[in-house]
Amino acid sequence: HSPSNCPLDKDQLGQHTWGFLHTVAAYYPDKPSSDQQKDMSTFFTLLSKFYPCEVCATDLAEQLKVRPPATSSQSSLSQWLCWLHNGVNEKLGKPLFDCTKVNERWRDGWSDGSCDY
Ligand code: FAD
């Protein structure tokens, strides 16, 4: 990889974007208002229009049709995003992530304390 003050390549952009998206989902309300639910759906639609990796954006738009964002709660959104990410992992031949661990990975830290400092 190039130095950190250079433009992002596809993988770097992907890592940062997933980090951002999973963290947004981790802190999404347990009981979102209907406006928040609508806005979150719009957010993913807009992401699929502006994500600066063409194959990724096209794929995302397709996936949003297959299974629209589950915006009814923090848990449902985080699980939906885990499903979305696993679809990309599968396509790229990467290991699938265990979605029961999504809050440990992105919000609470691992139960062995390895993220506590
Ligand atoms: P990443 O896949 O970037 O994952 C980062 C971290 O997230 C992992 O280390 C792991 O701890 C965690 N994680 C992994 N899976 C999950 C999950 N299911 N749920 C929660 N956490 C998880 N690249 C392409 O080449 N082609 C594409 O079509 C493509 N489409 C993309 C679409 C989107 C919307 C995004 C955001 C990225 C896309 N990418 C695509 C980039 C690709 O997904 C990876 O980001 C990139 O290949 C770097 O992978 P990585 O192995 O570093 O880990």
Automatic annotation (TrEMBL):
Keyword Acyltransferase among UniProt keywords: no
Reported cofactor(s): FAD
Catalytic reaction annotation: 2 R'C(R)SH + O2 = R'C(R)S-S(R)CR' + H2O2
Domain ERV/ALR sulfhydryl oxidase as annotated: residue spans: 6-106
Top EC class, one word: oxidoreductase
Major localisation: mitochondrion
Domain of life, source organism: Eukaryota
N-terminal signal peptide: none
Cellular localization per UniProt: Mitochondrion intermembrane space
A single GO molecular function term of this UniProt record: flavin-dependent sulfhydryl oxidase activity
EC numbers, comma separated: 1.8.3.2
Keywords assigned by UniProt, alphabetized: Disulfide bond, FAD, Flavoprotein, Mitochondrion, Oxidoreductase
A Gene Ontology cellular-component term: mitochondrial intermembrane space
Protein name: Sulfhydryl oxidase
